[in-house]
Amino acid sequence: xxxxxxxxxxxxxxxxxxxxxxxxxxxxxxxxxxxxxxxxxxxxxxxxxxxxxxxxxxxxxxxxxxxxxxxxxxxxxxxxxxxxxxxxxxxxxxxxxxxxxxxxxxxxxxxxxxxxxxxxxxxxxxxxxxxxxxxxxxxxxxxxxxxxxxxxxxxxxxxxxxxxxxxxxxxxxxxxxxxxxxxxxxxxxxxxxxxxxxxxxxxxxxxxxxxxxxxxxxxxxxxxxxxxxxxxxxxxxxxxxxxxxxxxxxxxxxxxxxxxxxxxxxxxxxxxxxxxxxxxxxxxxxxxxxxxxxxxxxxxxxxxxxxxxxxxxxxxxxxxxxxxxxxxxxxxxxxxxxxxxxxxxxxxxxxxxxxxxxxxxxxxxxxxxxxxxxxxxxxxxxxxxxxxxxxxxxxxxxxxxxxxxxxxxxxxxxxxxxxxxxxxxxxxxxxxxxxxxxxxxxxxxxxxxxxxxxxxxxxxxxxxxxxxxxxxxxxxxxxxxxxxxxxxxxxxxxxxxxxxxxxxxxxxxxxxxxxxxxxxxxxxxxxxxxxxxxxxxxxxxxxxxxxxxxxxxxxxxxxxxxxxxxxxxxxxxxxxxxxxxxxxxxxxxxxxxxxxxxxxxxxxxxxxxxxxxxxxxxxxxxxxxxxxxxxxxxxxxxxxxxxxxxxxxxxxxxxxxxxxxxxxxxxxxxxxxxxxxxxxxxxxxxxxxxxxxxxxxxx
Length: 699
Prior knowledge:
CATH topology of the domain at 61-132 and 204-277 and 558-696: Thrombin, subunit H
C-alpha cells in the first residue's frame, strides 16, 4: 500500500532538516509518494517495477508495442483533440461520440445526424469526414541533448527559449526530411527537463461508420456530467481508408473481449491526456485559484447563458454550448479542488518534502534551491497580467477588430509583409453582427470594467464613446463605437490607399479609430510581457523538472502533454454522498432514470432506444468506474485488460477526479467508461449494425 504524504513527511522531514538522511537514502524513500504525480506513464519509460509490485504483472516489450500501436490520436493534423483506437484489422476505429460530434454536424447536410444518429449499414455507405485524421505513434527518440545544444548557463530565459525553439525546429525539419510521410512532434516532458521526438503515421481518409443519437451519448446532460453512477452510451465508430479501401491494420489493432470487464479487474487505458499541472508550485496554483480559473469560469458561465437559447435552432451552436458546459464543469471542479484545504494541504506538504530533499544536498540546493521563490515572484506578475491577456482584444466587435487591423497596417515597426497582411484583413472583414455577438461583446466589457477598472486606458476609451458623469452604460458606448466610419469599406480603403493615410488615422476623431489606436499598442505590450513571462516560467519550470528527476529519478509520471501515455487501474466503486457507488451500472438504471424524470430532457431517450427496450438485456452493463488516471484528451481512449483485449471506452471522469489536475489521488477519483456490453447491445439491437459487431468479434 502506498503511504500518505503526511506519513512520509513525518518520517523523513526531521531527518532531512538535521542532515542525518543523505540524498541517496531519500532517493530510495521518496518514490513511495510518487503517485502524487499520477499514473500517466510514457511508453519510453514504463514503470515495470511498480506494475510488478502493485499487480504482480510485468509487461514485456511486445505488450507495450502492441498497446502503443493500437492507440491513436484523433483530430486535425496539427490539432488533435481526443483519443481513439484501432479495433479491427480493417481500419475500424472506436472513439467517443463527443469527439466527432462537430464533424458529424459539418457533414450531415439537410439531415440531423447529431440528434438522430447515423449508421452506415453497408461499407459503401460510410461517409468521408474532411480534414479529420488519426495519428499512430510509431517511434520515439530522446532529443534532450539536441534541444539543449548551444544553450549556456549564463543565458537569460528569453535567450534560452529562443535557442530551444530554433533547436526544436531544426530537429523537426531534419526528421521531416528523413521521413516525409510522417508527422513529427518534439514533446516536452517534466516541464523541459526531458524532450522526446515522436513520429506519427497519419491516416487522413477517415469515414463515419456510426454516430449514436445525441441523447444516447449525452444522456443526463450537464446535471450528470462528471458524475457516477452514469448511463451515457458515448461512442462512435469511424474507419481509416488507404487507397480508397479500408486500411490494413491487421498488425496493430486491439482485440475485442467477448465477456465484459469484471469488478476489481486490472485494466489499462492508452490515450492522450491533454494537460495537468502536477509539477506546478503552490504559488502558481494559487494564481490559478484566484485569477486564471475565475476569469475563465465567468466567461463560460455568461457565454452559456447568452448562447444557449439559440442552441435548438442550430447544430453548430448546440455543439458549442455542450463544449462550453463541459469546460465550465471541468474547470469549476478543478477550482473547487484548489479551494479545498484537505487537498491543498497535501500539495503543500508534498512541496515541502520536495524542497527539503533539495535543501539537504548542497549541490542540489545551489542548482535548484531558489526556484520556488523565483516562481512565486513570477506568479505574482502573472496575477497582474492575466486580466490584460483576457480583455485586451477586439472581442466580438467587427469595428474594433478592423481598427486594430488598420493600426497594424500603419505600424512602421512591423515588416512590409505584416503590414500588407493587416491591410488585407482590414479590407476583407465582414462588418455584420447579430444578437449573440452583440450580447457577448457587452458581456466582455462589463467584465473588463470589473477586472481592469474604469481607469484602464482601453476600458476608459470605449466608455468615453458616450461621455457621462454618471455610471457607464456599456450598451450605449458600444452602440456608439458600432457607428464608426469603419463600418464603411469604401472609406476604409480610401484611408488605407491615401498617401497620408497613416497621418489621417493618427489624427482622426472617429471613435472606432480612437479605440484601435489605444488597443493595438496595449496588445503589443501585453503580448511582449506575456512572452517574456512564459519564457521565465518555462525556464524555472525546467529547473523544477530537473530537480524532480534528481530526487525521484524515473519513478514519477510527467505532466500530461496531449501525447500518448498509458495508465493502470482497477475497476472499483467508491463511497460518495454517504452511500456507495457501484462499480458498474446497467440498462435497468438507464430506463429507470429516464422514467423517474418523466422522460424530460436531458433524461429523455431517443426513439430508437424507446422502441428497442423490449429487445435489450436489462442486466447488461452500461458504464463502469475505474481508478485509471485520465484527463481531458483521454476521451475516446479504449480500456483494455492485461491481455490487451478491449473491455470499455473512456468518456469522462467523476467530479472527485477533477482536482487530480494538480494532485493525484485515487480514493474516490474515478475514470468513467462505456462498458462493451452497452456497445454490443446498441450495435445489434438499436442501430442494425450487426456487420460492425461481427467485425469486432472477428466473424
